[in-house]
Structure formats: C-alpha cells, structure tokens
Write a structure and sequence with these properties.
By secondary structure, the protein is an alpha/beta fold. It is built from seven helices and six strands, in the order ααβαβαβαβαββα.
Length: 157
C-alpha cells in the first residue's frame, strides 16, 4: 500500500512541474491581466479527487497566503461550492469534464498546475518549467469559451 501511495504522489509531482507556491504567485500576477476578474478579492475553488492527496491543501494555503479567498471541493460539490468563484483550479485527480463544463457554463476562468491540460485545450492557463524558468501556458480558445476578457494574456504564450 505504501508503494502505491508513493507512486501516486510521484505522478502528481511529475504532472505539476512548478511548485504550488510558485504557481500561486505567478497566477496572482496573471489575474491582473484578466479584466473579467475583480481587482481585489479573487475567489479560487480547488477541485480535487480522492487520489489528490495533500495537493489540494497546498493550493488552498498558497492562494490564501497571497490574500485570496480559496476553498476546495470534490467534483460533485462544485455546483454548490463554486457559486461566486472567479477561478477554478483543477488539481491532479479532479474531474476534468466537470470543471470544463462548469467554467464554460458560468464564465469562470480555469487554471491548473498541469500544463498538458492547457496544451490539449481543456484548461485555460497553467505554468510549465522550461530550462529552469517558469513559463506561462495559455490556451486562447479555452479563454474565449470561458468568456474571459483577457486579450493581454494571449501575448504570454
């Protein structure tokens, strides 16, 4: 059992090449470019699954440490917990389909620590580590689907 838990944590770390605390700092900077988000009081909901582990807590704590409101919800709770959210953060193990639909239907920005989900067109923004530097990954098509007024973000790609 311990081996399975260790492998599970390793997979999450590999999926998220940028540490959570660094992601949160960069996301806060990126939020300023998005005219659809409030200048103050951004509310982030972290969507997680049973296999997410402590990542959801790390993400919530990282955003709260930067003065943002943050909470966590399992995919099935998103419809009620996500009310009033400005941003949905998909953690490893969270249900991608639920997040995509919720963000599309409610005009909410989707973000993640897993850059491949942005490259695949499933999530709007993530960060990747390229040559030991943090690089934003932005999907303009997804931003449009989520009704985000973030034309300045397109230049970050």
């Amino acid at each position: 059992m311990a081996i399975i838990a260790l492998l599970s944590d390793t997979c999450h770390a590999q999926d998220m090449p940028v540490p959570v605390s660094v992601q949160a700092r960069f996301f806060r900077k990126v939020f300023a470019y998005n005219k659809s988000l409030p200048k103050e009081g951004v509310k982030v909901v972290v969507v997680y699954g049973d296999a997410t582990g402590d990542v959801k807590d790390e993400v919530v704590e990282a955003f709260e440490a930067l003065g943002m409101k943050a909470s966590a919800a399992k995919s099935g709770q998103l419809a009620s917990v996500g009310v009033g959210a400005n941003v949905i953060y998909l953690a490893p193990g969270g249900d991608l389909r639920t997040v995509k639909e919720f963000c599309k239907n409610n005009g909410i920005l989707s973000i993640t620590g897993m850059p491949n989900l942005v490259r695949n067109g499933d999530i709007s923004i993530a960060f990747d580590a390229v040559n030991e530097a943090v690089k934003p990954i932005v999907n303009p098509d997804r931003l449009k689907i989520e009704k985000q007024d973030a034309a300045d973000l397109f230049r970050l790609r």
